[in-house]
Specification:
- The protein has about 425 residues and is an alpha/beta fold.
- It has 2 domains: about 35-210 and about 355-420, 3-Layer(aba) Sandwich (Rossmann fold); about 215-340, no CATH class.
- The chain contains 16 helices and 8 strands.
- It has helices at about 1-10, 35-40, 105-115, 130-135, 145-160, 175-190, 210-220, 230-250, 255-265, 270-295, 315-320, 325-340, 345-350, 360-365, 385-390, 410-420; strands at about 55-60, 75-80, 85-95, 120, 165-175, 200-205, 370-375, 395-400.
- An 8-stranded mixed beta sheet has the order 1-2-4-3-5-6-7-8, sandwiched between helices.
- Helix 3 links the parallel strand 3 and strand 4.
- The longest helix is centred in the middle third of the chain and has 27 residues, at about 270-295.
- It is globular.
- The model is unreliable at about 1-25 (pLDDT under 50).
């Protein structure tokens, strides 16, 4: 699954519907939201970083009993980059399905390290390694539960790290789902005061998890045949990119390959949107599968089936790939939490999966800020106005960039770092 996912991520960067911004005040160069999301920030528009970053992946041993299928899992993996002097420490929470070495986690780590921070990157609670080793319920998505799990992990990592580094104060940042979760972690820390975060940044957060995921899932409606043809669409794009790679006689899947694919116009905009949704489905497939195995839920894997490390997982992959978020929510997620809280309605659960459930805290907490984009398609109509209402001057909105596409743009990164350093917004 990892290999297939990596190839698809490279494929996602081949969209032709790409427009350069005109001579405007904001200099991020990609106007189309899907293209920005897929392509990110061209290298020439990123900050110039000189010198190595001492990135090191660590393991937090949890000593949990695990199914034989996960024999390779030795503990929760997190990533650090520490200064050799006293400095502020920032925790970074990855986005949906992301590890601590995900693309944007490492980008933030490099920039923040060069800005003088100690950095600890955490995997998303939806990442299989977190589900196996750190989740109390093994069923991610409930923001309050995920925050408790994240906070417990942060405490243990700090206990494991504080003998090695000197820290002046603590900050917290998260992107995408991690941005939403950062708000819930901050609220928990205000009660427990272990870190007493000085600054909390939510980068391109979802306001409502249900709304955001539904909007991503809706992109599949634009592929030929719709969501039911996701397998054919997936096979088609894989065949296309593989054929293009071999015919071009490329040495590697690198910038030259991606630029050539872009020039060849392998995808139109609807296909690009569909590919974004397929990429999301691949991540959610890993989440659903890991959760089902750990809970013995019988949702994908029969309850009486104990998978071995020699078993093929292809059928389970294709099954989970065809499961929509609505399927997961209605058939697996909601029934689980209703069994814990008899009488719980779907509306009550949906409210808990939203920033609206902690609105009063967010409106009153001066240390929390939000950075997002006008064209971030994970925000439903009215949700950007909602963020303006709740955060006021603590909200920064860029005119374009899609979902996280402009995160590495040098002006964005400079603003982000300045806000973390500043005592005011």
């Amino acid at each position: 699954m990892k290999i297939v996912g990596a190839i698809l991520i490279c494929f996602l960067q081949l969209t032709p519907d790409f427009a350069w911004a005109g001579d405007t005040v904001y200099g991020y160069p990609i106007e189309d939201s899907y293209a920005a999301t897929i392509l990110g920030t061209p290298q020439s528009f990123r900050p110039d970083l000189h010198g190595d970053v001492p990135v090191k992946t660590m393991v937090l041993e949890t000593n949990r009993e695990k199914p034989e299928l996960f024999f390779y899992d030795q503990g929760l993996r997190y990533t650090v980059a520490f200064q050799n002097r006293k400095a502020p420490l920032i925790f970074i929470i990855a986005g949906t399905g992301g590890s601590s070495r995900s693309r944007y986690a490492l980008a933030l780590m490099a920039n923040l390290y060069h800005a003088g921070f100690h950095v600890i990157a955490l995997p998303s609670p939806t990442f299989p390694n977190f589900i196996i080793d750190a989740s109390t319920t093994h069923l991610p998505g409930n923001l309050s539960d995920d925050a408790v799990d994240l906070y417990r992990v942060m405490e243990k990592i700090w206990d494991q790290s504080k003998g090695r580094i000197k820290v002046s104060d603590f900050c917290l940042a998260g992107y995408s789902l991690g941005g939403t979760e950062a708000a819930f972690v901050a609220r928990l820390d205000d009660d427990r005061k272990v870190f007493d975060f000085r600054r909390v940044l939510m980068l391109n957060p979802a306001v409502s998890l249900y709304n955001s995921v539904s909007r991503i899932e809706g992109l599949l409606d634009r592929i030929p045949g719709g969501p039911r043809r996701i397998g054919a669409f997936y096979n088609g794009v894989m065949a296309k990119v593989t054929d293009f790679y071999h015919k071009g006689d490329f040495i590697a899947i690198d910038d030259d390959f991606l630029f050539a694919g872009y020039k060849a116009q392998l995808l139109n905009r609807d296909e690009a949107g569909g590919a974004i949704a397929v990429s999301f489905r691949i991540g959610s497939a890993g989440m659903i599968f890991a959760s089902d195995v750990m809970t013995h839920g019988g949702y994908v894997v029969p309850k009486n089936r104990d998978l071995k490390n020699s078993d093929t997982l292809d059928d389970y992959f294709w099954t989970t790939l065809h499961l929509s978020f609505l399927d997961y929510f209605n058939e697996y997620f909601y029934p689980y939490f209703r069994s814990r809280r008899p009488g719980l309605t779907k509306e009550e659960l949906l409210d808990a999966l939203s920033l609206r459930s902690i609105e009063s805290y967010l409106a009153s907490s001066a240390k929390i800020g939000v950075i997002t984009n006008e064209d971030d398609f994970i925000l439903a109509p009215g949700e950007l106005d909602y963020l303006r209402q709740v955060f006021g001057p603590r909200l920064k909105v860029y005119p374009c960039g899609g979902h996280l596409g402009n995160l590495e743009y040098r002006d964005n990164m400079a603003f982000l770092i300045a806000r973390l350093r500043s005592s005011t917004w």
